[in-house]
Design goal:
The chain is an alpha/beta fold and about 350 residues long. Among the domains are: about 100 residues, MurE/MurF, N-terminal domain (Udp-n-acetylmuramoylalanyl-d-glutamate--2,6- Diaminopimelate Ligase, Chain: A, domain 1); about 150 residues, UDP N-Acetylglucosamine Acyltransferase, domain 1. It is built from 5 helices and 39 strands. Strands 10-13-16-19-24-27-30-33-36-38-39 form an 11-stranded mixed β-sheet, with helices on one face. The radius of gyration is 26 Å and the shape is flat. The chain starts with a strand and ends with a helix.
C-alpha cells in the first residue's frame, strides 16, 4: 500500500506537522532507521540517527520537535515532518495505514474451520474467524470481527467483545468476560482457579472452590504464557487499557486499574489491589493482600511487601526504596567487602575487637 504524506498529516494533525518538502510524496511503509529503503518513512527518536537518515533513500523523515532545528537536516532532500513524539506517531500511523492483516484471512480462506468444535448454544458473530481445532463451549457469546486461533479452548458462558483477537493455544475458563479490542497471545490461561487451600491436622490440603469470574475490560493486551486467576468469591478484574507482557502471573482476586504496564515475569499474589497508570518493571513481585495506589513506577526486580500510595514517585529494590536511593544502594554492593575490611581494621586499631 502507498499513500501520500498529506493523507498522514490530515489524519494526525496534532501529532505530525510539516517542516518542509513535498506533501504529495508517496510513502510505501515505515522502516527502522537501521534499514531504510526507497519510499519509506523513518521515525527518528534519537538526534544521533538524523545524519545517516538524511543520507538514506527514505522519502520522509519524522523527527522530534526538539530535533527539528538539527543542522544535519539542512541538506535533507526528504520531506521533513516534526512530532512531539515520533514513537507515538509511528505506532498510530502504522496501525492506521500499514496494519498486518494476514491473520484475518482465516485458514485456507475458511471463516470457521471444519475441525472446530462449537456448541449449538454458542452465539458467534457472522464475521468472526475460528481456526482449526478450536473448542467453543455452551452459551459462549463472541462479538463482531473477533478471531479465535487454532487449538484455543473457550469454555462455557464466556463473553468476548467485538474486535478481540484470541491467538492460538489459549485457554479461557468458564464465565470469563473479555472486553472489546483485546488481544490474548498464545499459551495464556485466563480465569483458572487460584492457588488456595484449607488444611487439616494431618496437613492434607483441600482446594477452595472459586465462585468469582475473571473480567478483562476493553483494550487490554495480554502477552504469551500469562496466567490470570479468577476470583474466590468476587471477580478478578483487569482494568481498561492495561498491557501485560509475557510470562506474568496474577493470582486470584486480583484487582488491576486502568492503563497499567506490567513487564515480563511480573507476579502478583492473591488479593492484590493495583490502582491506575502504574508501571512495573520486569520480575517485580507483590505479596498477597497488598494495595498499590495510582501513578507510580517500580524498577525491575522490585519486591513490594507493604501498601504503598505515593503518586508520581518511582521505587525499586528489596526492601523497597525511592528509586534514587535504590540505585545508590545497588551501586554500593560491590564495595561492601572492602568496606567491611576497612571497618574491621579501624575496630582493631581502636581495640574494639
Amino acid at each position: 500500500m502507498t499513500l501520500r504524506v498529506s493523507d498522514i498529516i490530515e489524519n494526525f494533525p496534532k501529532l505530525l506537522q510539516l517542516i518542509r518538502g513535498d506533501v504529495q510524496a508517496e510513502v510505501s511503509r515505515p522502516r527502522p532507521p537501521s534499514a531504510p529503503e526507497a519510499a519509506c518513512i523513518l521515525f527518528l527518536n534519537d538526534r544521533r540517527l538524523i545524519e545517516d537518515a538524511v543520507d538514506s533513500a527514505a522519502s520522509v523523515l519524522v523527527v522530534s520537535d526538539a530535533d527539528a532545528d538539527d543542522a544535519a537536516l539542512e541538506g535533507a532532500s526528504q520531506t521533513l515532518l516534526r512530532s512531539p513524539s515520533p514513537e507515538l506517531a509511528l505506532a498510530l500511523v502504522a496501525r492506521a495505514f500499514f496494519p498486518v492483516t494476514v491473520y484475518r484471512q482465516g485458514f485456507d480462506g475458511s471463516r470457521i474451520h471444519p475441525s472446530a468444535v462449537i456448541s449449538e448454544s454458542a452465539e458467534i458473530s457472522e464475521d468472526t474467524i475460528i481456526g482449526p481445532n478450536a473448542v467453543i463451549g455452551s452459551k459462549v457469546r463472541i462479538g463482531g470481527a473477533c478471531i479465535i486461533g487454532a487449538n484455543s479452548t473457550v469454555e462455557a458462558d464466556v463473553i468476548i467483545g467485538e474486535g478481540s483477537h484470541i491467538h492460538a493455544n489459549v485457554f479461557i475458563a468458564h464465565g470469563t468476560v473479555i472486553g472489546k479490542n483485546c488481544e490474548i497471545h498464545p499459551m495464556t490461561s485466563l480465569g483458572t482457579e487460584g492457588f488456595g487451600y484449607a488444611h487439616d491436622e494431618q496437613f492434607n490440603h483441600y482446594r477452595h472452590v472459586h465462585y468469582g469470574r475473571l473480567v478483562i475490560e476493553d483494550d487490554v493486551h495480554v502477552g504469551a504464557g500469562v496466567k490470570i486467576d479468577r476470583g474466590h468469591f468476587t471477580d478478578s478484574v483487569i482494568g481498561r487499557g492495561t498491557k501485560i507482557d509475557n510470562h506474568c502471573h496474577l493470582a486470584h482476586n486480583i484487582q488491576v486499574g486502568k492503563n497499567c504496564l506490567m513487564v515480563a515475569d511480573f507476579i502478583a499474589a492473591g488479593t492484590v489491589v493495583i490502582g491506575d497508570n502504574n508501571v512495573f518493571g520486569g520480575r517485580t513481585g507483590i505479596s498477597d493482600h497488598i494495595t498499590v495506589g495510582d501513578n507510580m513506577q517500580f524498577a525491575a526486580l522490585t519486591s513490594i511487601f507493604k501498601d504503598i500510595d505515593e503518586p508520581g514517585r518511582a521505587f525499586g529494590g528489596h526492601p523497597i526504596q525511592p528509586v534514587s536511593d535504590y540505585l545508590k544502594s545497588y551501586a554500593s554492593i560491590p564495595h561492601l567487602p572492602g568496606i567491611r575490611r576497612n571497618v574491621a581494621r579501624i575496630m582493631r586499631k581502636l581495640g574494639m575487637t
